[in-house]
Amino acid sequence: MGMQSLDDLANNLVKKFTGNKLAVGVDVGTKSIKVVALKKEKDKIILKNYAIARTKDPLIKIGQTGVINEFTGDVIKETLNEANIKNKTVNVAIPSFTSLIITIEVASVSGKVSEEAIRREVSKYIPVKIEDVVYDWQVIDEDKLQNNIDQQIPQNNNGIGMGDTKDSKMVKILVIAIMKEISNKYEKVFSQSKLSINLLEIDSISLTRALTHGKQGVYLILDIGHETCNILVASPQGVLMNRTIDVGGDKMTQVIADSMKVSFERAEQIKKEQGVNVAGNGQTGGILTTVLSIIIGEIKKTVELFEADFEGIKINKIILSGGAAMMIGLREFVQQQAGREVAIGNALEGVAFVPEIKSSLLQNAPSLSIAIGLALANFEE
Fold it and tell me: Higher pLDDT residue, 66 or 178?
């Protein structure tokens, strides 16, 4: 489920294409851009190229109207050129913290849910006029979550996912909403750089597509970016819960720098070399444990909220994603502290690539997950 079913989002901006054309995903983070180009040849999806560009100046303005900086389009264009990607039409992710992702309950009568009932309920959670946002919704099929059955949700006449419901009962609805002002700003920034947006999608949806594709069950995905940490519960049905906290990789680096009285650059190097150090015997062990304990607390809170809201449905595994996912000792630390199995996300599962780039590609794979998920959207049936 993505934003593509919203007819008025960026003036019918979405024109998803399929077949063997090149699909390009662009993940704009706060201080980095990740680009992935995929192509489908027969039944095989092939990675043609990828690029990661890092900047000192923020590309995304956290907490400000408009979100994306004016110069970001030029950085993306330059990154595409350096990666020899000629496409002028791309799929783009917007940050989860710019959106409202909630689960509501409304009555279903004879398998149908009233659009007006959803609109009334959604308006209770939006601090602005409902006319100033665009929103999409999908019925969550709890029976399929309970049984861990990975099936496509039947579509109603409006192309919106519906569960099999009979008579009158309360059903859970996943709602995703963004300000029209934000979508318009993205369109403007990209068009100024002679780029066209094919698909505008919230990053957690792209991430879910990349990391749960072909799987069954329910997962907690921990996506650690530069400035924020995205904690979401997801299944092949889509995002079920999404929370964002203001703790990311840069916060960890800054804590090391302050505690050891070294530069930010040196602290970043120390973090890469020594990591979490679960045993606490290294220089950074105790320092990073303090910061990571905040994340662990939010993971536990998310699990409690989800399992209370979705009674009887358990989270199978925690998946790590983002630039910090490969940090030494992180997987072991999270597994020990959260008391659940933890794996590093592999968005490249089922994607072919040339052996020569395997080493560097696998090292960067957690950072590329959102961009891969964006490109994969072109090949959904």
Answer: 178
